[in-house]
Amino acid sequence: MEPSRIPLFPLPMVLFPGTLVPLHIFEQRYRDMVSDVLEGEKRFGLLYHDPDESGPFMNETGRVGTVALIRRHQPLPDGRSMILVKGEDRFRIEEEVTGDALYYEAVVAPYEDHPPASDPAALVARRKRSLALFKNILQTQPHVPDALPSFSVKRELSFRLAGVVRMDPFWQKELLELRNEADRLDRLDPVFQAGIERWWAGGGTEA
Questions:
Q1: Taking the model in full, what pTM does it have?
Q2: Residue 143 has what pLDDT?
Q3: Which long-range contacts link 122-130 to residues 24+ away (Cβ below 8 Å)?
Q4: Is the domain of 46 the same as that of 64?
């Protein structure tokens, strides 16, 4: 992804690369945004922002978000709509754009991982450990969703796993900003391990 100008959608949630998220579009500025991007490449930038904690969105340089691709659009009778977006690459705000649109815009640049310190085989082995922990915690759950995504240790795994874990959005934001996959997996593993330990502490029975 080269530096480019895109609309921005600040929300109190995190979109991880490779994950699918449904969004309800009701505010007029974002109705306009969706209408405009549907006429183009169907992409906008989604950033974590909680107005109750941080006040108005300021479109600051350096903020990190994820490019959202609209995969499905369902108009509703009163002008609202439901969209299904898929997370693509991460980006970093380079410059605020001031225009006539009601919604926010910015020039953004790619926000990529640093080169891995270890060889590819070591990273694959690291992914296998995290995936095994994740599968172990699934076995402790009484109700496992039918539509879980497929996982492969041959490509980036941390965001795929993080997308199906319910955690505090600010914790997710910090995870999104990490630029090393092994570091992200190091943060996810204790979450999986804690889930397994809670299950065993409860006697291994469904609560």
A1: 0.88
A2: 60
A3: 123/181, 123/182, 124/153, 124/154, 126/181, 126/182, 126/185, 127/153, 127/157, 127/181, 127/185, 128/153, 129/185, 129/189, 130/157, 130/158, 130/161, 130/185, 130/188, 130/189, 130/192
A4: yes
173-186: average pLDDT: 96
Q: Is the pLDDT of residue 94 over 80?
A: yes
d(CA 87, CA 71): 10
Q: Are residues 55 and 8 in the same domain?
A: yes
On whether both 42 and 105 belong to a single domain, the answer is: yes
Query: Do 10 and 88 lie in a common domain?
Result: yes
Q: Which range marks the domain in which residue 99 is found?
A: 4-110
Which residues fall within 8 angstroms of residue 35, CB to CB, at 6 or more apart? Answer: none
Instruction: Kindly report the average pLDDT of the chain as a whole number.
Output: 89
Using the predicted structure, report yes or no on whether residue 177 has a pLDDT greater than 70: yes
What domain count does the chain have?
2
Instruction: Evaluate if residue 164 carries a pLDDT over 60.
Output: yes
Phi-psi bin for 101: left (phi > 0), alpha (psi -120 to 50), beta?
beta
Q: Using the structure block, give the residue that is written with the tokens 């980036």.
A: 156
Same domain? For 33 and 74 the reply is yes
Residue 135 has pLDDT above 80, yes or no: yes
- DSSP β-bridge partners for residue 8: 45, 104
- Please say whether the beta carbons of 154 and 131 come within 8 A: no
